[in-house]
């Protein structure tokens, strides 16, 4: 009997949790790429709007008025808790990266929040130049 209780206990511990993802807050969110915000308080913004169950549209940008460096995003996200599946277009143009030419990503990408971070970070971090790491974040 004792072994049966122990086996049952470990069986229930091994079952995956089936909790619903928390809804994404609709409205305005900060949006950044580190090349514009590094040591600055100049976040961009995106607007998130619910369009279905756990589905949202997202659109916005961040611009540096002096250098004209920028990043923009437009598409849809599917909320999966700490992970957002993004489908759409992300374009960054940073004067000192990729020869100053735009870097464009189209299609499916993943944003993920980990640990105690207060943002989802784009997981496809390699810039079009094949060398530079971009940190593109959407804040909760």
* Main beta-sheet annotation: 8 strands, antiparallel, barrel
Shape designation: globular
Instruction: Indicate the radius of gyration in whole angstroms.
Output: 19 Å
Helical content class:
10-25%
Number of helices: 2
Number of strand elements:
8
Q: Which runs of at least 5 residues are low in confidence (pLDDT < 50)?
A: 2-19
Terminus-to-terminus distance: 48 Å
Strand order of the largest sheet: 1-2-3-4-5-6-7-8
Instruction: List SSEs in N-to-C order.
Output: HEHEEEEEEE
- Structural class computed from helices and strand pairing: mainly beta
Proportion of beta-strand residues = over 45%
Q: Taking all residues together, what is the mean pLDDT?
A: 87
Characterise the protein shown here.
This protein is mainly beta and 140 residues long. Helices cover 12% and strands 46% of the residues. It is built from two helices and eight strands; from the N terminus they run H-E-H-E-E-E-E-E-E-E. A hairpin with a 2-residue loop joins strand 2 and strand 3 (55-63). The termini are far apart. Residues 2-19 have low confidence and may be disordered.
């Amino acid at each position: 009997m004792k072994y049966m209780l122990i086996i049952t206990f470990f069986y229930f511990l091994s079952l995956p949790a089936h909790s619903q993802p928390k809804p994404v807050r609709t409205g305005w969110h900060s949006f950044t790429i580190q090349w514009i915000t590094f040591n600055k308080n100049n976040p961009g913004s995106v607007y998130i709007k619910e369009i279905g169950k756990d589905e949202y549209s997202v659109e916005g940008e961040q611009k540096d008025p002096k250098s004209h460096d920028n990043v923009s995003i437009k598409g849809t996200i599917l909320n999966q808790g700490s992970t957002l599946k993004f489908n759409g277009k992300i374009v960054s143009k940073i004067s000192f990266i990729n020869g100053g030419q735009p870097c464009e990503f189209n299609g499916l990408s993943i944003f993920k929040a980990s640990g105690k971070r207060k943002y989802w970070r784009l997981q496809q971090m390699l810039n079009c130049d094949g060398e530079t790491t971009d940190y593109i974040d959407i804040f909760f």
